[in-house]
Design goal:
Length: about 325
């Protein structure tokens, strides 16, 4: 039994006439009559009564048609679902990210992706870069945003492009002597209580600070340790000291705080977007399209690695 047999039976029930049903189906009447007869033999029951007034379902036919209509509806829904999945409009996207990526660029990307692909289930996991790198290489994530390029087993197979460049900035409360200054020098930081983030992704930042302030610096040794950059900003607003962190913090202004550049300018590791080149699922392609649209420089880097979107889509 094929789907066409179900369509033939439903059309015959709707039109109550072999000729009219055949016309609606776009076939000749004799083949329709033969197909209905073959269907009745397969089912083992007469499905239609042929009368002078027309063709009408029997009790067996009425029961058969309930299931036939439901099956055809499921077949239609399956086709629609398959087409949506092929266009990246359904499915899931598993994204691992570090917390500070929520300052920039993830907010714009996630808002746009959620708006354009409401049928895609986003599975978002905040995790350290080392963990998300391993999860991505192991197939547990579809895409990851890390501090620096992924490292470890399998990382060499990943496609990685920078999505954010950072340098060190300072944040202080509005009552601090540095409030209102455009920049502060390293020498000024040596005599201030400092606030630093302690997350697993901060060793690279800490290493940069050691180079900047000096190995074994008393200022670093006595620094207040915060969980993440959001806490750094909050503590600075409370007047605890001078918060130090990535320039992404500028995307999260808070009343009662002031941001200063740190001189000399100290680059920090890039934010990096990574995914497996073997995973070219429609949902991942749709996400990368949103990244392209929101971050043109990133889009150019993706095109250099993968080819222009039209080629990737083909």
């Amino acid at each position: 039994m094929e789907a066409r047999h179900l369509r033939y039976a439903v059309a015959l029930a709707e039109h109550a006439h072999f000729g009219r049903a055949a016309t609606a189906l776009g076939i000749a009447q004799p083949p329709l009559s033969k197909q209905i007869a073959a269907l009745e033999r397969e089912v083992g029951a007469r499905l239609f009564d042929r009368t002078r007034r027309g063709v009408f379902p029997t009790a067996a036919g009425a029961a058969f048609l309930v299931r036939a209509r439901a099956a055809l509806a499921e077949i239609g829904a399956a086709s629609v679902d398959a087409a949506r999945a092929a266009r990246g409009e359904s499915g899931r996207l598993r994204l691992g990210f570090i917390a500070s990526a929520l300052l920039d660029p993830l907010p714009g990307v996630l808002r746009r992706f959620s708006r354009e692909r409401p049928g895609v289930r986003l599975e978002l996991h905040e995790m350290a870069s080392s963990r998300s790198s391993a999860a991505l290489a192991g197939g547990e994530l579809d895409v990851a945003v890390t501090l620096g390029r992924p490292r470890g087993i399998g990382a060499e197979r990943l496609v990685s492009v920078p999505v954010g460049h950072d340098h060190l900035v300072a944040v202080v409360g509005s009552g601090h002597p540095y409030a209102g200054l455009r920049s502060v020098a390293v020498a000024q930081l040596l005599h201030q209580p400092l606030i630093l983030a302690s997350g697993e992704d901060e060793p690279a930042v800490a290493a940069g600070l050691r180079d900047l302030l000096g190995e074994g610096s008393p200022a670093l040794a006595s620094a207040t340790v915060a969980r993440d950059v959001h806490t750094v900003i909050g503590l600075a607003a409370c007047g605890v000291g001078v918060g130090l962190g990535p320039s992404r913090m500028l995307a999260a202004p808070r009343p009662g705080t002031w941001f200063c550049e740190v001189t000399p300018r100290t680059p920090l590791p890039d934010l990096v977007l990574s995914f497996s080149p073997e995973d070219r699922s429609p949902v991942l392609d749709a996400f990368l399209d949103v990244v392209r649209a929101n971050c043109p420089v990133v889009g150019a880097a993706l095109d250099r690695r993968l080819g222009p979107r039209s080629e990737a889509a083909g």
